[in-house]
Amino acid sequence: xxxxxxxxxxxxxxxxxxxxxxxxxxxxxxxxxxxxxxxxxxxxxxxxxxxxxxxxxxxxxxxxxxxxxxxxxxxxxxxxxxxxxxxxxxxxxxxxxxxxxxxxxxxxxxxxxxxxxxxxxxxxxxxxxxxxxxxxxxxxxxxxxxxxxxxxxxxxxxxxxxxxxxxxxxxxxxxxxxxxxxxxxxxxxxxxxxxxxxxxxxxxxxxxxxxxxxxxxxxxxxxxxxxxxxxxxxxxxxxxxxxxxxxxxxxxxxxxxx
Length: 258
Known about the structure:
By secondary structure, the chain is mainly beta. It folds into two domains: about 5-135, Elongation Factor Tu (Ef-tu), domain 3; about 140-255, Jelly Rolls (Sandwich), CATH 2.60.120.860. The chain has one helix at about 75-85, and strands spanning about 10, 15, 20-25, 40-45, 55-60, 65-70, 95, 100-115, 125-130, 135, 140, 145-150, 155-160, 170-175, 180-185, 190-200, 205, 210-215, 235-245, 245-250, 255. The strands form five sheets. The chain has a seven-stranded antiparallel beta sheet, with no helix packed on it. Strands 11, 12, 14, 17, 18 and 20 form a six-stranded antiparallel beta sheet that branches.
């Protein structure tokens, strides 16, 4: 398994540490320490007279980790100022490391960054990154356009979730002819994602992660035409049944634990 410490450089907010002459280094003796699983605490309630608590689930903490980067050469004040401007981002930015560029964190620098040096403008920077979630992510992928324009009996479709947790995609639908559209996930207990009463040529965009629906029709809202079952892909193979005439496309990213 590759680790953060294996990397030589990182890409953050669209720029690479190599541009600033920084290399990833290990400044500690002994073994490496890496985040293994998200930090979580139990949500429970204990009442008088009952030894067993009522369990309500888990509360997960956003991922946080520390890394150090050495200056390959001596620095000057201008370079330090550029690095400060680069790292002081106003919101979470994508971060990836050279050993695994397809694993993306969304994070900001927090706590007290340290510049450790020998007084001769040589040294390293220690940074703490805090993420916006307990997970890292794959790049964003867009599927092919699936053409179900002639779909009288429904069609089968397979989606493979290569992540470690459920995947909630963006769904793009172009309706062919008036009528209903549904996607049944046979791998998720037969849950059905369904719209009724769509119009020919209408384009629907559904953000299943944030539960947002948009239509190409002006002054029209489709929440009342939806059964409120947003599409979710379980880990591994998802066997889908698509009903209704339409063109269909997915945009998605996978969640990763490690």
